[in-house]
Amino acid sequence: MSSEKKSWVPGEKTMKFASLYQSENYVDARGRKKTRLRYTGPWTVPLSTDRGTRIRIRACGIGTWLILAALIGLQLFRHASSGCWYTAVPLMAALFPGAYGALGSIDLPWRLKPLTRDRYMHSVIRICRSSLAVLILTGAAAVVCEPVYRIISGDWIFLSEDVLYLILCLIAAGLAFGEIITLRGMEFHEVPNERYRPEK
Q: What are the residues facing 26 on neighbouring strands?
């Protein structure tokens, strides 16, 4: 077995978007030679940069954290079916895409500046996919699992906690649906790398 270490080559099973970056040498203000990574791939730009687009981006960013807050709230109180595994598991599983989508809001184009391909995938696409998962899981918990529990247990009395549970499920699912519709409704297009030079 060879003891030689294999050198790292950008784009080879290390980073998904490493091939879109290129190492380049430059001289800083003090005259020292340094190396930095320069993005060489296409830029993803919102087609519209009006005030409405800014509002939609901000609403989506805030919405991801409201979804996570609703999902956490569903874990903090007890209701009729909270002890039932087939209602608890989907809601607990929804926490993961909920948190994942909330982290994606960090990379959203808040100032409508062009995005690198990895930032676009880690923000817009990540939030859409996470929101879809939240929508499916919370919808299943409220629309499928809750009625199944009521039928099996024969308990049809809805207390305030049960109503709050359904409301929070509806809020999480509604916000997730809104995220998908809003982001999918926004048009993005790619421009060649040389068309945009970000400030250093």
A: 34
Environment class of 101 (CB within 10 Å of its CB; exposed 0-12, middle 13-18, buried 19+) = buried
| 128-164 residue pLDDT tens | 999 999 999 999 988 888 888 888 888 787 778 888 8
Beta strand pairing call for 43-46 and 188-191: antiparallel
**Residues making up the chain, counted from first to last:** 200
Q: How many CB atoms lie within 10 A of CB 104?
A: 24
> Element (H or E) spanning 118, and its range?
helix 117-120
Query: For the whole prediction, is pTM greater than 0.85?
Result: no
**Integer distance in angstroms from the first to the last C-alpha of the chain?**
46
Burial 118-154 (b: 16+ CB within 10 A, else e): bbbbbbbebbbbbbbbbbbbbbbbbeebbeebbeeee
